[in-house]
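Q: Given only this backbone (264 positions), what sequence would you predict?
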């Protein structure tokens, strides 16, 4: 994995601007541009599948934050401004995909099956100009077919557009262990609890409680990937009860934090 400094990131963006088309329908060699994480906002005319073979990848857009541990990946459509941040000890195996190679999709988190994972990893060792008419091209077509069928997951944290809510959400995302109640924030903003709740629901599609729980669970993933104790992760993400953390984690990811760490 390569994580670029701001200066190096700007240099990479200049390279991207010079790349008007992809040399093949899919680009993703281990040393090619897709496998260099850059958090500076940028966009390009092709799909990006932001995937980590190990660790967690975070993709930020103006509308939401998307997290993908190794069994998931973020689908970034052409033209969408975004930044990509890797977690601790992350190994990226991302892809650039020609816009006409797959049906259009909005930005989302996709499920990466064991078969799809192996296809992505195998493809990462193909030359940039692989043999599109031979065995390499056939593997790419299977890879694209599996990506088209991959279901979506809910590891998305929507950002509100309401300027009153934005500082509040940024604070909670930066401090997932914050225990201040809704009433504290509504008083701070000069709003009633009901008004703040309505604004939250209208702007994010989630209640304040749902949004905060999603925020905490997404903050837990990089900590679990680092191998931290589950009890410590629960406390760091604002859960007073380990059982409550396990139940919420299972509801979102379909497995307990212990199962997640073992499978990872």
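A: Predicted residues:
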């Amino acid at each position: 994995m390569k994580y670029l400094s701001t200066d190096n990131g700007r240099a990479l963006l200049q390279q991207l601007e010079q790349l008007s088309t992809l040399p093949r329908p899919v680009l993703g060699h281990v040393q090619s541009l897709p496998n260099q994480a850059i958090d500076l906002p940028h966009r390009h005319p092709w799909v990006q599948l932001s995937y980590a073979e190990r660790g967690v990848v975070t993709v930020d857009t103006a509308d939401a934050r998307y997290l993908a541990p190794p069994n998931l990946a973020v689908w970034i459509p052409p033209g969408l401004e975004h930044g990509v941040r890797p977690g601790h000890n992350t190994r990226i195996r991302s892809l650039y995909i020609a816009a006409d190679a797959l049906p259009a999709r909005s930005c989302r988190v996709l499920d990466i099956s064991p078969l799809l994972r192996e296809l992505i990893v195998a493809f990462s060792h193909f030359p940039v100009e692989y043999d599109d008419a031979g065995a390499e091209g056939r593997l790419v077509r299977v890879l694209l077919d599996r990506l088209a069928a991959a279901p979506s997951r809910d590891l998305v944290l929507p950002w509100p557009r309401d300027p009153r809510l934005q500082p509040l959400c940024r604070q909670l995302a930066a401090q997932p262990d914050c225990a201040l109640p809704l009433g504290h924030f509504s008083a701070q903003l000069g709003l009633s609890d009901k008004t703040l709740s309505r604004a939250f629901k209208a702007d994010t599609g989630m209640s304040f409680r749902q949004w905060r729980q999603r925020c905490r669970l997404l903050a837990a993933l990089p900590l679990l990937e680092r191998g931290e104790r589950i009890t410590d992760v629960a406390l760091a993400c604002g859960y007073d009860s380990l059982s409550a953390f396990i139940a919420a984690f299972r509801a979102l990811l379909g497995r307990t934090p212990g199962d997640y760490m073992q499978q990872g």
